[in-house]
Amino acid sequence: MCGIVGYVGKRDCADVLLDGLSRLEYRGYDSAGIAVFENDEIKVAKSKGRLADLAEKMRREGKPQGCAGIGHTRWATHGEPSDRNSHPHSGSRVTLVHNGIIENYKRLKDFLLSVGRTFASDTDTEVVAQLIDYYYEENHGNPVDAIVKAMKELEGSYALGVIFADFPDMVYALRKESPLIVGIGEDESFIASDVTAILQYTRNYYLLEPGEIAVLTRRGAKVYDLHYQQIEKELKTADWDVSAAEKGGYPHFMIKEIHEQPTAVKTTITPRITDGMPDLSECGITPEKLAAFRRIHVVACGTAMHAGMVGKYVIEKLAKVEVNVDIASEFRYREPLVGEGDLVIIISQSGETADSLAALRLAKELGAKTLAIVNAKGSSIAREADMLIYTHAGPEIAVASTKAYMVQIAVMYLFAFELALAKGAIDEAECRRLTALLQETPAQIEAILEQKDHAAQIANTLITADSLLYIGRGLDYALSMEGSLKLKEISYIHSESYAAGELKHGTISLITENMPVIAVATQQKLFDKTISNIKEVKARGAKVVLVSRDSYVPEKDVADFKFGLPDFEDLLMPMLAVVPLQLIAYYTAVLKGTDVDKPRNLAKSVTVE
Ligand code: F6R
Question: How far apart are CA 19 and CA 73, in angstroms?
Answer without folding.
Answer: 12
